[in-house]
């Protein structure tokens, strides 16, 4: 479920930044980034995940790494956090 929320957040962030990319590839990028976080490398797994997500977004969409892909990832993380908070409050 978190990968789906992350993928949809990436798609919404791309629409907000006026970039183009298919939803299926964004879901795949979110899944790959989530798998990279699980690597047993302490303290830098999240950073490697961020780098992998930037690379995948820049290759599979019309976005350049700087500033487009960085903005997309930051906006997507904010949207995913907001969706997580809203779900927690709704289920409370």
What can you tell me about this protein's structure?
The protein has 92 residues and is mainly alpha-helical. It has one domain. It is built from four helices and no strands. The longest helix has 27 residues, at 65-91. The radius of gyration is 13 Å and the shape is globular.
Shape: globular
- Secondary-structure element string: HHHH
Q: Determine the strand fraction and express it as a percent band.
A: under 5%
Determine Rg (CA atoms, Å): 13 Å
Please report the distance between the alpha carbons of the first and last residues.
Answer: 18 Å
Q: Helicity level, as a percent range?
A: over 70%
Q: Treating each run of at least 4 consecutive H or I residues as one helix, how many helices?
A: 4
Question: How many strand units?
Answer: 0
Mean pLDDT: 93
Oligomer: single chain
Main beta-sheet annotation: none
Structural class category? mainly alpha
Unreliable spans are none
The domain count comes to 1
